[in-house]
Specification:
heterodimer, A: alpha/beta, 10-stranded mixed beta sheet, 12 helices, 24 strands, 25% helix, B: 344 residues, 8-stranded parallel beta sheet
């Protein structure tokens, strides 16, 4: 019973939110508030060309005329956008040539978070261990990007968004905002105006990216938000796997994280995008503090036979509001969405996906596992649609919700729109609580109640965990355990 | 947004529109620029025969918005009532009817919607079921292609009550059946079935909202239908399990066949759960007829047209099989048969 042992070990090692510390570091801030000057300030700080500033300002104008949406099943007091800082960066040199120039305090932060920034450390492991390159984003700037040289040899561009705007303007101009248009929605529009850093990835035709790429987002400064922007392009026949992790200190105030992620897959390309989201969820008793995670993630399967797979493990944030989606434009393109969303304490999550079938013979698959405990609310909201030209479109959706305790809630809101006579959509959903029989069986075998719950929950989310890259699956499994701590009894 | 007010005040800005989330697929404001003139009164004698004629002596008629406003079934009684909702001409009208079914009484309500012209109609029914009462509501909607109609039912159940419903519709220009049930749990049972057969440019919307408010309730829902030509079918089902409604068992299924490349089926099966000891599930499928099965049948010498209507008949027939009143089930089966026969 290896699984049982793993689970028991994990429960024994349970801690509260372990990433809640603050790094004491000298930082530079934009003046509080949001206006044209703030946008210009950010653009100037990033030494951006004229066209980028114009793009941002146009987005700002449009955002100013928009209203905050209220259709999701989440509630929060109105956000005062003038009472936040939109740019926060460590005072040391941005984009240092080598790790030696990076502020040691920052390095210690990442060490504490368990993120390998030194390439040799990554290599120091067991021979043949999988390696991954990291782009570390600290508040509004990218601190360091590892393995750039080795990736460049393969032709892969992996750098921060700011650097891409300066070094590869032709690629950025060609693709930025083509998947998520500037005024797509309120938060995406805000992001377009004030986005700080994020990752840029370009994989040239026929190249299989030699290692996993990852970005680690850290909000540190108080009173600031994070507005990262990520753009990943897999050219014809390319393959890339990308991971995203995030944490923030424990604070009593709410902080806004409004990111935009755009993926473009051309003919025969494949992008695998995995997220392990562990923003500070707020105080479980009072509901005070925590991150508002309002994110727009969308993939455009532009090319024929292209493939995009979203995998997400959502355990953190006070409020999560995100729908990683796929526009299946190319013939026979494939979209996949695997999700585990866990809410505990007073967390609220409204998450799901959209699979928009435009091309012939397109296929999609949605596996969503929602777990709610404590006094939390967990909603799956999804759309599957087939347009008249999407003959032969197929979708399979499975949404399961698990309830732990009497004060939480779980909702399933799928939208299905079939607009041609040759598509096949199947959707099934269940909502149940943990089976008494199974719990009893596990407890009979000597597991404590909490361990038994962990074991059953791990079984419940297995289908999705299997989709994660190995090292992250282990991490995610641990997170599942931590997130549910205190939910029993 | 209030349809009744829109009709009475002739104010199209009060019509539900696609901006109202629950009406996004059945937009009335975008369809009607103006509200038609109020309908002229219609003499009940001109109604002719209804689809359930001969099954009961008791027939109530709501003609162009006027008819009885209240019906009472005394405790312990068993009755079969035909309710004919008839609309003629191009006018607009609305009517509201309250039906009380006393404790342990049994009512079979045979409801038909006929005509419709090119007008706009609203019928609202408030149904109250006493303790251990039972009501089976069977609805046949055969409206004009140009009709715009909304039929609403609010059912309030007491403990131990049973409410079953089967709706059959061929759609209209725009048509919606909305059924809202307050489910007390405590031994009460609900069955909400529906069936649509849509051709040409017809539209039908089956919407239901069931709210489980007490422990130990059951809801079972099966909706099926076919959409051909440029028709559009909408299914929206929401099951809410309120806090404390433990032991709820709720199941919902919606299966649709699309028979043409220009037809559309939209579905939203929702679960909203605030209690933990529940077993809730829903399933939804949309697809075409299985080519392999068709091929098999044709190999056995069946002409394609016959093979298709056989498949459709067996697919839809399961909904009819769940009807409890045998005589009414026969009427509904032949109505369906005539519809499918006209499929080809």
């Amino acid at each position: 019973m290896v699984a049982v042992k793993d689970t028991v070990d994990q429960v024994a090692g349970l801690e509260k939110y372990e990433h809640g510390f603050v790094t004491e570091i000298e930082q530079e801030f934009a003046p509080k508030g949001l206006n044209r000057d703030t946008v210009a300030f950010i653009s100037a700080k990033k030494e951006e060309p004229e066209w980028m500033l114009a793009w941002r300002l146009e987005a700002f104008e449009r955002w100013s005329a928009m209203e905050s949406p209220d259709w999701a099943r989440v509630s929060f007091p109105p956000i005062d956008y003038q009472d936040a800082t939109y740019y926060a960066a460590p005072k040391t040199k941005v984009g240092p040539a080598s790790l030696d120039e990076v502020d040691p305090e920052l390095l210690r932060t990442y060490e504490k978070l368990g993120i390998p920034l030194r390439e040799q450390e990554v290599l120091a492991g067991v021979t043949g261990a999988p390696r991954y390159a990291v782009d570390a984003v600290f508040d509004s700037v990218s601190v360091v990007t590892t393995f750039k040289k080795e990736l460049a040899e393969a032709g892969v561009i992996f750098c921060s968004m700011s650097e891409a705007v300066r070094e590869h303007p032709e690629l950025v101009r060609k693709y930025l905002g083509t998947v998520v248009p500037v005024s797509d929605n309120y938060f995406a529009c805000l992001n377009s105006a004030v986005f700080s850093d994020g990752s840029f990835v370009y994989v040239p035709p026929g190249v299989r990216c030699p290692m996993e790429l990852s970005t680690y987002f850290r909000i540190n400064a108080a009173g600031s938000g994070q507005f990262e922007r990520t753009l990943i392009i897999a050219d014809k026949g390319a393959y890339v796997s990308y991971l995203e992790g995030c944490t923030a200190p424990m604070r009593d105030e709410n902080q806004l994280h409004a990111a935009v992620v755009e993926l473009v897959a051309l003919d025969d390309a494949e992008i695998k995008y995995s997220t392990v989201q562990n923003w500070y969820p707020g105080d479980p008793e009072t509901g005070k503090g925590g991150i508002y995670n309002f994110v727009t993630k969308r993939a455009d399967c532009r090319g024929d036979r292209s493939r995009v797979s979203w995998t997400q493990v959502e355990t953190g944030s006070a409020i999560t509001w995100k729908y990683p989606s796929c526009i299946l434009r190319g013939r026979e393109s494939v979209g996949e969405f695997y999700s585990i969303a866990i809410t505990n304490g007073r967390q609220q999550a409204d998450t799901g996906t959209k699979m928009i079938h435009l091309g012939e013979g397109t296929r999609s698959r949605i596996i969503s596992k929602g777990i709610s405990a404590g006094r939390s609310s967990n909603t799956y909201r999804g759309l599957v649609s087939a347009h008249p030209k999407a003959r032969g479109a197929r979708n399979f959706t499975q949404c399961d919700s698990l309830l732990i305790g009497k004060t939480c809630s779980a909702h399933t809101v799928p939208y299905i729109e079939a607009r041609n006579g040759a598509c096949t959509f199947e959707h099934e959903a269940t909502t149940t609580r943990l089976s008494e029989d199974q719990l009893f069986y596990a407890r009979q075998r000597g597991l404590s109640e909490e361990e038994a719950v962990q074991l059953l929950v791990n079984g419940f989310v297995r289908d999705v965990l299997q989709e994660l890259p190995m090292e992250f699956a282990v991490e995610a499994q641990k997170l599942v355990a931590i997130s549910l701590e205190g939910s029993v009894g | 947004m209030n349809l009744d007010e829109a009709i009475r005040l002739r104010d199209p800005s009060r019509l539900p529109s696609r901006r109202d989330e629950d009406w996004r697929w059945t937009d009335l404001r975008g369809l009607l620029r103006t509200i038609p003139e109020p309908s002229r009164p219609l003499a009940a004698g001109t109604a002719g025969l209804g689809p359930f004629d001969g099954l009961t002596e008791e027939t109530l008629i709501v003609a162009n918005g006027s008819g009885p406003e209240e019906i009472r079934i005394a405790g312990g009684e068993t009755r079969t009532l035909a309710l004919r909702h008839i609309s003629r001409g191009d006018g607009a009208h609305s009517a509201r009817l309250r039906i009380d079914v006393g404790p342990s009484a049994r009512l079979t309500l045979l409801e038909s919607h006929e005509g419709g012209g090119a007008g706009l109609s609203l019928l609202g029914v408030d149904l109250h079921l006493g303790a251990d009462a039972a009501c089976e509501r069977l609805v046949l909607a055969d409206m004009d292609a140009e009709a715009v109609a909304v039929v609403e039912l609010d059912a309030n159940l007491a403990a131990g009550a049973r409410f079953s419903q089967t709706l059959l519709t061929a759609g209209a220009r725009r048509q919606r059946f909305e059924t809202r049930v307050r489910h007390p749990g405590q031994g009460a049972e609900v069955r909400l079935d529906g069936l649509y057969v849509l051709r040409d440019r017809r539209h039908a919307d089956l919407t239901s909202k069931v709210s489980h408010e007490g422990p130990g309730g059951r809801t079972d829902q099966l909706a099926r239908g076919v959409a051909d030509d440029q028709a559009r079918a909408v299914f929206q089902g929401r099951i809410t399990v309120q806090e404390g409604a433990d032991g709820t068992d709720a199941r919902m299924a919606h299966n649709a066949l699309i028979l043409s490349d220009r037809a559309e089926v939209d579905a939203r099966p929702e679960l909203e759960i605030y209690a933990d000891d529940v077993a809730c599930a829903h399933g939804a499928t949309v697809g075409a007829l299985d080519d392999e099965v068709l091929f098999y049948m044709r190999q056995r010498g069946l002409p394609e047209r016959e093979a298709r209507s056989l498949l459709v008949a067996s697919f839809l027939g399961e909904v009819i099989d769940r009807i409890e009143s045998p005589a009414a089930a026969e009427r509904m089966r032949s109505w369906l048969q005539a519809r499918i026969g006209a499929e080809g």
